[in-house]
Every structure is written in structure tokens, then in C-alpha cells.
Write a structure and sequence with these properties.
With about 260 residues, the protein is of the alpha+beta class. Helices cover about 55% and strands about 15% of the residues. It has a six-stranded antiparallel beta sheet. Strand 3 and strand 4 form a beta hairpin. Helix 2 runs antiparallel to helix 3 and helix 3 packs antiparallel against helix 4. The chain is elongated. It starts with a helix and ends with a helix.
Length: about 260
């Protein structure tokens, strides 16, 4: 046995030196499939919280006024005798006036008398809706990949999500200064149709995005409202989500 073993070893060494390769038996060993493990950790919780905050702020920006103008004339009794209020939403414009009570009139995009204001509202609304849809598509892709994987490589999904986040941030960033920059000029073009004397003084909403005036007993103020601030705050929230995804790129590819 010992001699036979030494001879076999010499034969194998000779075969290797001559260029022959010994064939090894193939084994069909299949690795057991890993059991699904839900992701619960600080990064994932932070990601979910930021996405929820972004979604909530975007919906609030669509539902609340972006800019408000109010003018009230006070009588000797202290109560306002006349009141006018203009609310600019991301989709429409509404005027409140005191005519035997508060009368509200809203103007939609198709109103030709407010061509500049309604065009601005339609543009802002389109930007906000597009950002919101990007957020919904991103969450849908993540859930679909987690429970019914369709990307074989996590890197492809990462760059797709990264691109959607970048588009979201750019849309929100564009909407905020666009509204603030174009609103005064749009008011200057269309205020006559509103029957509001808001651009007759040297300091008015047609000249500046925010301000206050007082003439005798008439107090006037105008400026950004809750919807505009929600849109402003959405920009750093989207940036935080973008940085979180970029920093956790390796973890993202392995766990999502």
C-alpha cells in the first residue's frame, strides 16, 4: 500500500509536469436561499421619517397659500370697516372682501383675465406635483424591489433612486425662487382684473414680494405664507435624503 501510494503520487506529479490536469469530480452544491429578513435599523428608520416628512410638506404646500395680501381700514370703534385679502395658492388665487360679510372669489388657470397669475400658479403646481410623483415612484420602486426583486444588481436601483431624488430636489429648488421672483410682476399685469387697488402706491406688492404699509387708518401687509415655507423647507429635506442614500450606497445595494 505504501509503495503503491508513493507510485501514485509520482504519476500525478509527472502528469502535472507534462501539462495534464487531473479532473476533479463536479459537485452540484446549491447554497441555501437566505430567509427574508426585514430591515429595521437607524438608517432605515431615518430614511422612512425623511420620506414621510417630505411627502407631508409637499402636500401641505399644495393645500395652503404661498402668499397672502391683506388690507384693513379701521374705524374709530377699533373694528375694521373694510377688509380685503388676496391668497395665492400653488394652483389658484382667491380674493376675500368684506361685502355684507366675507365674500370669497377664486380664479382658476383657465380665467383669461388673470393670464400672468394663473400661468404662474399652473407652473408652480406642475413643479410641485412632479416632485410629489417622483417621491411616490421612488417609494414604489423600493417596495417592489424589496418584496418582488426585478433588479439583479442593487447598483442600478441605487442610481435610479438617486436620480429621482435629484430631480425632486431640483424641482422644489426651482419652484421657490420662481414664485417669489415672478409674483410681483404678475400682480402688476393682472391686478386691475381683481378690482383691488394694491399697486397704486410707491410701495406695493407689485414691487416687492414682502412688505408692510400704513396710510392713515389703513394697514396693509403682504408676504409669504405657510405653503411657501413648506416648499422652502422641502429643499433641505430632499438634500438630507439624497446625502443619506449616497452615504449608505453599499448598505443600500446589499439590503434593499
Amino acid at each position: 500500500r505504501r509503495v503503491h501510494g508513493e507510485g501514485t503520487l509520482k504519476i500525478q506529479m509527472a502528469m502535472v509536469s507534462e501539462g495534464y490536469v487531473a479532473l476533479q469530480p463536479e459537485t452540484n452544491h446549491v447554497m441555501p436561499k437566505e430567509k427574508f429578513q426585514p430591515i429595521v435599523g437607524p438608517r432605515f428608520i431615518l430614511f422612512v421619517m425623511l420620506i414621510g416628512l417630505y411627502f407631508s410638506l409637499n402636500v401641505s404646500a399644495l393645500a395652503t397659500p404661498w402668499w397672502v395680501y391683506s388690507s384693513a381700514t379701521y374705524s374709530s370703534g377699533g373694528a375694521p370697516s373694510t377688509f380685503q385679502r388676496l391668497s395665492a395658492f400653488a394652483r389658484t388665487f382667491c380674493v376675500d372682501e368684506s361685502k355684507s360679510g366675507i365674500v370669497t372669489t377664486c380664479y382658476d388657470w383657465y380665467d383669461t383675465g388673470l393670464a400672468n397669475l394663473t400661468s404662474l400658479a399652473a407652473g408652480i403646481f406642475a413643479l410641485q406635483i412632479s416632485a410629489l410623483l417622483c417621491c411616490i415612484v421612488m417609494v414604489f420602486l423600493l417596495l417592489l424591489q424589496r418584496y418582488a426583486p426585478f433588479f439583479k444588481q442593487g447598483a442600478k436601483l441605487f442610481w435610479l433612486v438617486f436620480g429621482l431624488l435629484l430631480v425632486m430636489m431640483l424641482l422644489n429648488t426651482l419652484a421657490v425662487p420662481l414664485f417669489a421672483g415672478l409674483l410681483p410682476n404678475s400682480l402688476d399685469q393682472d391686478y386691475n382684473y381683481l378690482n383691488l387697488k394694491i399697486c397704486t402706491s410707491s410701495q406695493s406688492p407689485c414691487d416687492a414680494f414682502t412688505g408692510t404699509t400704513q396710510v392713515d387708518k389703513t394697514f396693509t401687509r403682504w408676504g409669504p405664507a405657510a405653503g411657501w415655507y413648506c416648499a422652502v423647507f422641502n429643499v433641505p429635506v430632499a438634500l438630507c435624503i439624497l446625502l443619506l442614500i449616497n452615504k449608505c450606497r453599499v448598505w443600500f445595494a446589499k439590503n434593499i
